[in-house]
Amino acid sequence: xxxxxxxxxxxxxxxxxxxxxxxxxxxxxxxxxxxxxxxxxxxxxxxxxxxxxxxxxxxxxxxxxxxxxxxxxxxxxxxxxxxxxxxxxxxxxxxxxxxxxxxxxxxxxxxxxxxxxxxxxxxxxxxxxxxxxxxxxxxxxxxxxxxxxxxxxxxxxxxxxxxxxxxxxxxxxxxxxxxxxxxxxxxxxxxxxxxxxxxxxxxxxxxxxxxxxxxxxxxxxxxxxxxxxxxxxxxxxxxxxxxxxxxxxxxxxxxxxxxxxxxxxxxxxxxxxxxxxxxxxxxxxxxxxxxxxxxxxxxxxxxxxxxxxxxxxxxxxxxxx
Amino acid sequence: xxxxxxxxxxxxxxxxxxxxxxxxxxxxxxxxxxxxxxxxxxxxxxxxxxxxxxxxxxxxxxxxxxxxxxxxxxxxxxxxxxxxxxxxxxxxxxxxxxxxxxxxxxxxxxxxxxxxxxxxxxxxxxxxxxxxxxxxxxxxxxxxxxxxxxxxxxxxxxxxxxxxxxxxxxxxxxxxxxxxxxxxxxxxxxxxxxxxxxxxxxxxxxxxxxxxxxxxxxxxxxxxxxxxxxxxxxxxxxxxxxxxxxxxxxxxxxxxxxxxxxxxxxxxxxxxxxxxxxxxxxxxxxxxxxxxxxxxxxxxxxxxxxxxxxxxxxxxxxxxxxxxxxxxxxxxxxxxxxxxxxxxxxxxxxxxxxxxxxxxxxxxxxxx
Lengths: 321, 368
Prior knowledge:
- By secondary structure, chain A is an alpha/beta fold.
- Chain A is built from 11 helices and 7 strands.
- Chain B is of the alpha/beta class.
- Chain B contains 14 helices and 14 strands.
- At the A-B interface, helix 5 and helix 6 of A face helix 4, helix 5 and helix 6 of B.
């Protein structure tokens, strides 16, 4: 029997991500959010399964589809929503928007809008953590997330090679939703043997093909233990998933007919949030749902009421002092 | 005739206490050694930095002294290694990433432009990127189209980057120390032909402030602003012009961004003439920027427009064969003729500066 406390915690975070993103989609047409949003609806189990076993000072590096991981890693929710609204209280002062969420205090490295770009940056962070551990004796771990598209960038292979060469404390996660914008994997990959490709770098690989949040979390717990104890260098984990909504924007675009509705149905039937809900007592579940609803209302209000940045903010932080 | 010894004197100025004559490349090495000893967060990496040649000697012995965690070679992977440097910098380290030729930096543009330059701004000051990217412009002995490019203007274009191109040993050491201590990404542009030039360099650590131009020689007739290796050619031109009683003020911007227009304009107001010699192509280049700023400042201050001209690489790919390569670059003589015409008028003919003595260009025998 899975620990109910864990189930409740995972459910709460996944539900928060789902409900907050659906709320973003709902209010998107009002133009209160002036930022292109790449929603993670349907992909929450990866972010939460990956981040749940991390320490606060472990680091995650994100893709532009970064809301889920930002939330799962403990990124400040008020700062996130205000950022989407372009307000001065945003996590980046309103200067970066949805694609560049950042919260260094909570271990969220800044995300990039350019596919693959943060993979080597995360690798460099891991190099620093490896050096730091020689002084502190405590190994912090970096988790670098990318999509299946990100693995097509040269810097992905360059980073994996370097990380393997230097046995860096980093876990590479590929969220494989099989789509690059609208283009399916079949049009982009010669073979789908991604883990096999990665294993030729001499690193441990894992493939989880059903987005099972417990499998993802267990794999992470083991991977983290190995890296913290120095018995393994980089580890690669491929997680299959499905993007329920359009690439960018608030809509379900299955009417566009570029992907198979039966597959969508299978992934909906396999929805990890519904699964967790079924595992909880009704009372616990309803408490969580109430709390999530309240949180979303609070952060939305905060974002609405926050001021826009003052004009002089245009010129702050161009150069560091 | 302008001898190498005279040139060094003109370039390095008189010897001061606590200095000695050392080569540009050794001045760089000294900067690394001193800064790495001072700050354990500084590390240096790149292809070949720990091999027996040590980037022309600029990194020789550093791994022995500071260990393999702080001085190490990398796979080529210029793109990812730049990202690695940025990540380590964000995590609180001070990486120095080395490229043997500037042309390879084109493989790093995504990381430099999208991450290094923007992170401090885009993440609203939550992170800093104290990164030095060392890069070398090549020239001569057949370096050709892809080993000779000078791409500083591409980096000047992007807010968030600093660009420095020291032209003598003193500034090489002082600017490197300043760049390592700076909390921003600094593109540090060296020139292969400057490596063997000597200058008086203090034995102690010192920082040459970034963003401050250096007046190398004073003169009242024309301001010549020259970049990187072209500073040497401008000094040769100055010597030629002196022989016909024309006094040129030669200014080295040292830092290309942020640009010290105050020093340049103070000189231009005095001479009424500005000849800009870039060690690069002209279109959308440092010369475009400096001349445009000069015009804007004259307009803003309602002062009369100076005579303006510029020289740089021929608008072609750099050819390898010597006769064509010689035509590709401005030199002391062509610069002197241009300055002479600016002063005497376009029709002025009949003056040809003498051919210079053997220079560092003739002396260079490759392969690197």
